[in-house]
Specification:
Layout (H helix, E strand, L loop, with lengths): L2 H20 L6 H20 L9 H22 L6 H32 L2
Helix pairs in contact: 1-2, 1-4, 2-3, 2-4, 3-4
Amino acid sequence: MTPETRRLTTNVDVVCGVLSHVTQPIPAADELLVVPVHYWYAASFTRKRGLRLWKAPWGRLSGLIWGGAGARLVANLLLGFVPGVGVFSNAITAVVLTEALGRYLDRKLDAAQAKVERP
């Protein structure tokens, strides 16, 4: 990752972690709030890499974002009732999903840039 995209990822980690932590008492609220943030993040990440938005693998990104939201929902429902753990599990899973999304985007956009730069 470039320093600029690493900074963006860290900022989105914080936003998603705080959103998830604050909305933890309301089932599925954090997932519904984090999904649009992840789409915004993917678009911003793509732009910061200097590529047009249509170069991002939106089909797979959507699968990762919504699949991650579903997995987070299940994990948070299971861990949400464990005293002390539920409060932090939402934030941790949101940050882990953001990091996974960033790493995936970084790899895919590297490949897209290599195709553009090839003569």
